[in-house]
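About this split. The held-out portion is used to measure sequence recovery: a designer receives only the structure tokens and must propose an amino acid at every position. Recovery is the fraction of positions where the proposal matches the reference. Here is one held-out target exactly as it appears in the evaluation file.
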């Protein structure tokens, strides 16, 4: 039986056809990547955090997707001048999903914002505007295209087994993870930015700062689906 993978979604004002109204949405590439890896994608729009245990009880794996900045209040800081557009409803929902996933030891993959949410959930903090730290905007182009950077995975990590020693990735993030208690750094970019984290032990907890769904990068999704596949499938 193919595992059911829950994907967190955006809630934004959107326009399609004759409509212009709030919508729950997610770029198709996420669901397509999960499906191609053998999973069944299910979209999880922001809702009452109290619903998270009920939702997660029906899932085999969780994918926390990309999106807006995390509210700095979640990690005890005032917002940087370039931190904007956070969604308190989405923050609360995804943090509750991670609580529920942890209670069931569910496999979890975080992508871009998802990595940041996982770090904050564990008590970590973010670098609110990465160009201040690295002196360039290679990680976050000013237009709607993805940047391209090379990352090196760390020895003896699950991530290295999934994607190899070095990989050219597509990225679009102006923030990064500064502290990640309970996780180990699993990859770095050439300018020293932590580009991936993962948990120890047998449970699949992997998060990357880049966007594997935008390229032919099946390793991460295959890893999640394999970890989420029921043993009696």
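Reference sequence for scoring:
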């Amino acid at each position: 039986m193919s595992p059911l993978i829950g994907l967190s979604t955006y809630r934004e004002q959107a326009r399609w056809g004759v409509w212009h109204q709030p919508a729950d949405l997610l770029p198709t590439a996420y669901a397509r990547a999960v499906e191609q890896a053998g999973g069944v994608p299910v979209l999880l729009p922001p809702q009452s955090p109290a619903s998270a245990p009920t939702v997660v009880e029906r899932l085999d794996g969780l994918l926390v997707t990309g999106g807006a900045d995390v509210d700095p209040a979640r990690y005890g800081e005032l917002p940087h001048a370039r931190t904007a557009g956070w969604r308190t409803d989405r923050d609360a929902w995804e943090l509750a999903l991670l609580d529920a996933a942890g209670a069931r030891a569910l496999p979890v993959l975080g992508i871009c914002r998802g990595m940041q949410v996982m770090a904050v959930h564990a008590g970590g903090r973010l670098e609110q505007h990465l160009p201040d730290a690295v002196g360039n905007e290679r990680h976050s182009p000013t237009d709607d295209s993805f940047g391209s950077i090379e990352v090196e995975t760390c020895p003896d990590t699950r991530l290295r087994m999934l994607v190899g020693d070095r990989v050219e990735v597509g990225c679009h993030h102006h923030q990064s993870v500064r502290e990640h208690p309970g996780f180990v750094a699993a990859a770095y970019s050439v300018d020293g930015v932590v580009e991936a984290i993962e948990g120890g032990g047998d449970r699949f907890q992997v998060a990357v700062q880049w966007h594997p769904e935008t390229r032919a990068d099946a390793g991460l999704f295959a890893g999640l689906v394999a970890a989420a596949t029921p043993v009696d499938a």
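Annotator remark: The CA atoms of residues 75 and 120 lie 6 Å apart.
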